[in-house]
Amino acid sequence: MELTLLENTDDGRFEVRDPEGQVAGFIDYLRAAQSMILVHTEVSEQFKGQGVGSRLVRATLDALQDEGITVVNECPFIQRFLARHPGEYDWVQ
């Protein structure tokens, strides 16, 4: 399934959407000048068990790394993702 990452600044979250525009999952965040705190990850019920959460986290972290801001994680789902990918996202605090 093709997913597109979008930043929804009005709601303070990154979203992945399917080709029809339906939100498959999102990561809530708090943004400051040059940092972002990742607070919560959620996958819509109909998309669970399809790897959407991991794809959402990877796409979000890749986009934030390209942006060059400090990322602080407070989300347990993202923490588990980071533990499964040692060394790949060492820049996340």
Short description:
The chain is 27% helix and 34% strand. With 93 residues, the chain is an alpha+beta fold.
Structural features, described:
- The protein has a 5-stranded mixed sheet.
- It has helices at residues 52-67, 76-84, and strands at 4-8, 13-17, 23-31, 35-43, 70-73.
- The protein starts with a strand and ends in a 9-residue tail after the last helix.
- The protein has 93 residues and is of the alpha+beta class.
- The chain contains 2 helices and 5 strands, in the order ββββαβα.
- Strand 4 (35-43), helix 1 and strand 5 (70-73) form a beta-alpha-beta unit.
- The model has no long low-confidence stretch (mean pLDDT 93).
- The chain is globular.
Low-confidence stretches: none
β-strand percent reads 25-35%
What is the CA–CA distance across the termini? 30 Å
Largest sheet composition: 5 strands, mixed
Overall mean confidence score, pLDDT = 93
The outline comes out as globular
Helicity level? 25-40%
Radius of gyration over C-alpha positions, nearest whole angstrom: 13 Å
Strand arrangement in the largest pleated sheet? 1-2-3-4-5
Order of helices and strands: EEEEHEH
**Estimated structural class:** alpha+beta
Count the E strands.
5
Number of separate helices? 2
List the helices and strands and how they pair.
Layout: E1 4-8, E2 13-17, E3 23-31, E4 35-43, H1 52-67, E5 70-73, H2 76-84
Parallel strand pairs: 4-5
Antiparallel strand pairs: 1-2, 2-3, 3-4
Provide keyphrases for this structure.
93 residues; five-stranded mixed beta sheet; 5 strands; alpha+beta
